[in-house]
User: Fold this.
Amino acid sequence: MNAIAEPENAGEAHGRAASKSAVILISGRGSNMQAIVEAGTGADVRAVISNRPDAKGLEWARGQGFATEAIDHTAFKTRDAFDAALAEAIERYDAGIILLAGFMRILGDGFIRRHERRILNIHPSLLPAFPGLHTHRRAIEAGVKVHGATVHFVTSELDGGPAVIQGVVPVMPDDTEETLAARVLQVEHRIYPQAVRWWVEGKIEFNAAGVVSVRGTGVITDSMISPGTAQ
Ligand code: NHR
Ligand code: GAR
Assistant:
């Protein structure tokens, strides 16, 4: 018996007993969900929920033995009614963290506030560049030479919450939306599991301004310059 019981995760961003448990929200393929599961982050995935009943990722999740639910947003008259049904489902799993993994429905303020600092999203751009949809097309149109993905906490400002980790890829002169999306997806599969692992380990901190830092992470001393000079 321990003489002194340590409060679990004291002083960290999350203090609840269920902090290692996660619910994953998807809308489609679910490759980020798969990357998180296969990386073995230490998160206990309690359920996978999709707003699209035909999401490919649901089949994979079922095959893994996860609890799955489809909450079809088209079956609800209002966004609030969908949000309420989603909130009710998530509540039942008592998750410490909610992971948006290619989840395509904007969530209402009430939902966000209720789960403040407990919702992570992966967004396919280097935020604050290109919030919203069609990020790869917009990056190509803008002519940026680097692009990438951001894992961030979700706030009521769309794609505006604090970043946890970002991954950078070059934009090639002959890129199409598809080739660029595929390159970004590779880096997504590296950074999302990393962010989840940090959360599970209790390493994520918020400063007074709400900016996130990760305890014990190293400094990157090299830079990426794009385009490069090699032929
Ligand atoms: N909810 C809130 N409140 N805040 C955020 O930052 C959110 C969010 C819900 C999802 C993911 C986000 C992304 O990474 C995300 C962030 C969907 C849309 C969107 O316009 C925009 C951003 C994101 C996800 N969705 C349309 C809608 O009307 C539907 C589009 C569709 O079904 O294809 O909700 O990019
Ligand atoms: C990913 O590229 C993710 O960043 C993006 O959709 C893809 C989902 O792939 N998310 C958004 O665009 C959110 N609006 P996945 O289902 O294979 O993880």
Notes: Residues 26, 28-32, 57, 101-102, 104, 122-124, 149, 185, 188 surround glycinamide ribonucleotide (ligand 2) (CB under 6 Å).
